[in-house]
Write a structure and sequence with these properties.
The complex is a heterodimer. Chain A is built from five helices and four strands, in the order αβαβαβαβα. By secondary structure, chain A is α+β, with helices and mostly antiparallel strands. Chain A has a domain of 74 residues. In chain A, the strands form two sheets. Chain A has a two-stranded antiparallel ribbon with strand order 1-4. Chain A has a two-stranded antiparallel sheet with strand order 2-3. Chain B is 35% helix and 20% strand. Chain B contains nine helices and eleven strands. Classes of the chains: A alpha+beta, B alpha+beta. Chains A and B meet through helix 1 and helix 5 of A and helix 4 of B.
Chain lengths: 107, 281
Amino acid sequence: MAITLSDPALPKVKIRISTDKCKTPMACPTPCFRLCPQGVFIVAPNPIKVAKKWTPIDNKNPGDYMVIAPMIPKCIGCMICVENCPSGAIKIKFKPPKPESEGETGT
Amino acid sequence: MCEFCFAHGTGKYWFKEARFYAREMYHRVRADREHRRKHGPGLEGQVAGLALQAMETKNLKPEKYPEIVRQINRLTRDIHSGQVITLDDALTMIELASPIAFIACDCRRQRYGYIERDRSRMTCLGLGIGMFRYEQLPARYVAGAEFVSDKEAKKWLQNWNKKGLVHTLMTFGLRNGAPYIGGLCNCSYADCLSISWRLDYGIKQLLKGERVATLEPEKCVGCFSCIVRCQFGALTADVRQEKVHIDMTKCFGCGLCETACKHDAIKLVDRRNFEVLKYDW
């Protein structure tokens, strides 16, 4: 499986989630981390808040949780997360790979 | 788009065009092969040598491994490659090509030294005009070739699909960028060399299919009858929802899970609808 993931023929994916727009992910009606068919996203407690001192984490308290996208190689580009995000916090960019036929069959 | 679609894309799936099975194409490929036989070692030998080399380097020199795999991928595309297809595509292929013949599997002969003499055990079909000359290659067609009608071949294809065999088309030779489709294999991971090379070593002799399986979660009951049939390890059980989970990066689009599902929960969607998967072959 590692061979397919590090394949240079696949496009590069960049996922950006703005914490300003997405503040209460645990209270979201259509959460991306549950809708994503590939399981790219993760909901984690905000490390900055947790690191200072222990505070009881509330689902509806803004800024306690944040969504991150660590499993980017799993992304297939179905855009379900972008369509369903109520606050429009997710932005995805695809960088298409160089045409394979030029580089490889030239030799 | 896969390489073949890209080279001669007319908007449809490339293997649904009759010209890839045509007599003219066969003669061109055959002339090319004879030219190669006269001048130096054949390219088929090179592929086999490189594949063996790749398996050694994977253990001994892992840093050289990607380069060797890239070389093989380039060569197999020109000589002998394949693609996973669905049952419906296989049925339309049989309508396009004539004649159709039952032949003994070459992979099983190479792996286990097993040659099927009985037609009920054969799972490979030879397509196209090249099958009339099977006597010229006695080493390849050891058990000969048995010609069948379209109806019978279709019945057998549906039978193999019930058993859970993956349908793959095989191309032989390439001239001016156009391949000649000469085989329709129905096989599994245990027997097929190209499936196991692809999964274990990343050798792209077998390309992924044109479609991907997607799940409609509302319809899935959680019977998990589809999981057993996946040869590529793309289906797993989702315990949270008691439904099946499809990993689309591993899916080859063979459609075996779709035919197993009694509730129409799994549907095959064109690979080109997804931004990343349309480059993944």
